[in-house]
Amino acid sequence: MHENNKERVVVEIYGQYYTMKGESSSSHMRMVAGYVDDKMRKIASANPRLDTNKLAVLSALNMADEYFKLRQEYEELLKLLEQTAFDDVDEKNENAQLESKTDKE
């Protein structure tokens, strides 16, 4: 994608303005920036003495923790779906074998 086709949006995160550019929609980028801003403000309210750098790192660590937990849940769901699909195939095969056996009798 060419540079000209990228969305560009100015967002405010914890009192600072940032220009975001990307292939995502401007509404998506605003949503992401809002999430980061909310996370920083929640941590700041619980820890008012933190400077902005520490606040940003703690926010990043919290979001990374959320990401890894969600990724683990996603992988577990994929395994469950695969197992369910295999179980369905096995059940269909068993039913087909039973039907074929009863047809022969």
Radius of gyration: 25 Å
Low-confidence stretches: none
The major beta sheet can be summarized as: 2 strands, antiparallel
Helix content: over 70%
Q: Which structural class matches the secondary elements?
A: alpha+beta
**Domain count:** 1
| Rounded mean pLDDT score | 89
What strand order characterises the main sheet? 1-2
For the secondary structure, the number of strands is: 2
One letter per element, helices H and strands E, the order comes to EEHH
How many individual helices?
A: 2
**CA-CA gap between termini:** 65 Å
**What global shape is seen?**
elongated
Descriptive account of the structure:
Helix content is 70%, strand content 13%. It has 105 residues and is α+β, with helices and mostly antiparallel strands. Helix 1 crosses helix 2 (52-104). It contains two helices and two strands, in the order ββαα. The protein has one domain (3-104). The mean pLDDT is 89.
What is the topological layout?
Elements: E1 7-13, E2 16-22, H1 26-46, H2 52-104
Helix pairs in contact: 1-2
Summarize the structure.
70% of the residues lie in helices and 13% in strands. It is of the alpha+beta class and 105 residues long. It has one domain (3-104).
Give descriptors for this structure.
105 residues, alpha+beta, two-stranded antiparallel sheet, 2 helices, 70% helix, elongated
